[in-house]
Structure formats: structure tokens, C-alpha cells
Design a protein that fits this description.
4-stranded mixed beta sheet; 4-stranded antiparallel beta sheet; 269 residues
Length: 269
């Protein structure tokens, strides 16, 4: 039998770094799944990248042990969140010459990001049972953070969900979380092939998530859902919208599922 939990995470700032440029750190708008698993691993006290490099392991301990957990992500509040650029000097040989010159580094930060997280796993998973026990007791083993250790993460509204059901014949409806998006026309297929940066489209008005009902939006982003064998991000196009979507827009990988949870429909990957 499977177990399902949900909780909210938030912080004053977040940096979900895109691995593209060293001198300007850009951020994803949502926590990548490998980063989410890192948060879960910190809560459980699992080892991370330093241990992986020292031991020559294929993956960090947290990723190897938790990658089978299915997750759903729902942004909360004024999404996409506002951003600021933070600047600091880095006296580091990676950025400077042999004389360790100071280099100005810029990083893009999300302001007050907040998400509802859903996690699904097998009942026989002992780590998941430990995870549930820790969250239920408002405890963590290592302090989790939102991309950088100065952005301490707050966890709230933990809940065990007893009643949920698979939607095996989804045809059309609203999905309350992000989902893997399948291009359905030539223009989208071209964008998907060429790569897509973050895009937000507002139709029927210029509203954000917490504004009046009836204002529509669509959000797209190339989004990491895992690591490949070289520890590089596997990127998939995701979509988030408050409009109805059709089955043909959903990309179903082996791992993907749609669950009805109370009054919400959540896509898991």
C-alpha cells in the first residue's frame, strides 16, 4: 500500500541555480526535483555531494535512496515570484587569475518563494516512514535550505493524506500542480527542440495566482526532473496553468501519475 503526504515549504529568498554561467547565477522558478530530494535527504540526515566525491559513488546518497519517490509541486502566492539581483565579491581561484583577483558575482534570487509539496512512496519504504515521523514531530536531522545555506527553509502544514485515487482516464480538466508538458503544435515542438527559458503568458487579464478568479495564465520552463549518468540535469518542459488542459498536453513518463487528492488534481513525477 502507498503512503502520501503533503506540506508547505517557504523562505525569504531562494536560489535554484541553473548550471549555465559562472559569473551570473540564474535561478529556476521552481525547486528542481534533485534539489527537492536533497531537502528530503537533509531532513533524513543522508549524505550529499561531498561524500559522493570522496567515495567515488555514482550518485549522492540522498539521490540514490530517494529517487524513486514521486513528487508533486504546486506554487503558492504570487507566482512567478519576484526576483532581485544580489552582488558579491568572490576571491576564489575559479573566478580569478592565479593572483586570486576579486570578481563581482551576480546571483538572481527569488523573493519569498512558497510551494506545496506532495510526496508519494510505498508503505514498506522504511526511509519514507522515518521521513513522515520526523515531519510529524517537526524535526530535521540536517537543516534544509532553499538552494543556499543562508536561505533556511521553513516547513509547515504537514498532513498525511489517507484518501486519494489514481485518475487513469484523464481527458480534460484543471491540474493544480506543475506537469510535464508535451508539445502539441509545430511552434511548441520547435521551442522544445531549441530549448525554452522561463516564459509566462497572461491571458484574459494580467493577474497573478492570488488575484480574482477567472484570470488565466500559463507558465512554462525547462525544468530538471533528475540526474543523468554524468550528474547533469535531465531537463523536461513543464507547464503550470489555472486553465483546463487536455490529455494530449500531458507527457507521461514511466514515473508519471495523476492523483485526485480531496478537491485537487496533482501530477506526480
Amino acid at each position: 500500500m502507498e503512503k502520501l503526504i503533503t506540506f508547505k515549504i517557504e523562505s525569504d529568498f531562494a536560489l535554484f541555480k541553473k548550471p549555465d554561467i559562472n559569473e551570473v547565477y540564474l535561478t529556476y522558478n521552481l525547486p528542481p526535483k534533485p534539489l527537492l530530494l536533497g531537502i528530503f535527504g537533509a531532513i533524513l540526515g543522508l549524505k550529499g555531494l561531498k561524500h559522493q566525491y570522496e567515495k567515488g559513488e555514482k550518485y549522492p546518497e540522498y539521490y540514490g535512496k530517494l529517487k524513486h519517490w514521486r513528487t508533486g509541486i504546486k506554487p503558492l502566492g504570487n507566482f512567478p515570484f519576484n526576483k532581485i539581483i544580489n552582488e558579491y565579491n568572490s576571491k576564489n581561484s575559479y573566478f580569478g587569475s592565479a593572483k586570486y583577483e576579486n570578481i563581482t558575482i551576480q546571483e538572481q534570487l527569488l523573493i519569498r518563494p512558497k510551494y506545496q509539496i506532495f510526496v508519494l512512496s510505498d508503505n514498506e519504504d522504511s526511509l519514507f516512514n522515518k521521513f513522515v515521523s520526523l515531519l510529524n514531530g517537526n524535526k530535521v536531522i540536517f537543516m534544509p535550505y532553499m538552494g543556499k545555506n543562508e536561505f533556511v527553509l521553513k516547513i509547515s502544514d504537514f498532513e498525511k493524506i489517507g484518501n486519494f485515487e489514481d485518475i487513469e482516464n484523464f481527458e480534460k480538466g484543471k491540474i493544480d500542480s506543475i506537469f510535464l508538458h508535451k508539445p502539441i503544435n509545430k511552434e511548441e515542438k520547435k521551442e522544445s527542440k531549441e530549448g525554452l527559458d522561463s516564459k509566462e503568458f497572461y491571458v484574459e487579464g494580467e493577474g497573478l495566482l492570488d488575484e480574482k478568479e477567472g484570470w488565466g495564465f500559463e507558465f512554462y520552463e525547462n525544468f530538471p526532473i533528475g540526474f543523468d549518468k554524468n550528474m547533469q540535469y535531465n531537463l523536461f518542459k513543464i507547464k503550470y496553468t489555472n486553465k483546463e488542459v487536455e490529455k494530449k498536453e500531458l507527457l507521461f513518463e514511466e514515473f508519471s501519475r495523476i492523483l485526485k487528492i480531496k478537491d485537487k488534481i496533482v501530477y506526480f513525477f
